[in-house]
Amino acid sequence: MAATKTAAVARTPAVKRRILNRDKLEADIANVAVRVFAECGYEGTSIATIAEQAGLSKQNLMYYFPTKQALYERVLDGVLDDWLARMATLADPGQEPRDMLRAYIQAKLRFSREQPWASRVYAMEVISGAQLYGQQIQSRVVPLLRKDIEVFEGWIGEGRIGPINATHLLFAIWAMTQSYADFSAQMALVLNRKQLSRKDFDDAEEMITHMVLAAVSTSGHAIAKAGAA
User: Fold this and answer.
1) pLDDT tens digits for 47-96?
2) CA 212, 215, 216 angle in degrees (round to 5)?
3) Ordered DSSP codes for 9-20
4) What are the structural domains, with CATH classification, of the chain?
5) Alpha-carbon distance 100 to 112, whole Å?
6) Burial class of residue 153, CB neighbours in 10 A (0-12, 13-18, 19+)
7) 167-192 pLDDT tens trace
């Protein structure tokens, strides 16, 4: 019995190393796949191409991801995990609305700057009708969106921000911040440079934050109401 326990203990570190090694290899494969899916789209991407760029045989890659859809979903799982972690910053109603909105915009723009391939893969999936990942988006994004909307409604009820359609405000923030990843090539062409700079993202943050804070300002709504009257 003692010998059996000793053998089991001895195997534990080896098992942990195998799990860690597998996790790392799967993450490395996903990091290659996200760029290929972003460049070629789901239909235009092959497992063979990803395997070649990952430095693996097709058979070896398929040991970890048996199908292209399984790998695609793993990539999108990672994108959504990161995106929702940033989105969750709005779920604390105790903070000041201005500070929270500023931090949220900053986080979303940082995602666009640091993870442009991930943002594009997600955008392409949604533009195509979310045929392969729609259920996950609905089950994971919608509940958090509702929580964020409740926070906005609480702020409105307390008079901390002006009355505004929180759903469409969030849609607008997503569109503005994600465009700096999804349409960065167009922006760079307009600006006559190869790619967007860190200053471009800093300028975008200042401008988007200014627009959003103006939209939720209680004084701004009072002025607009007076003008309409």
Assistant:
1) 999 999 999 999 999 999 999 999 999 999 999 998 888 777 776 767 89
2) 95
3) HHHHHHHHHHHH
4) 1-66 (1.10.10.60), 73-228 (1.10.357.10)
5) 19
6) middle
7) 999 999 999 999 999 999 999 999 99
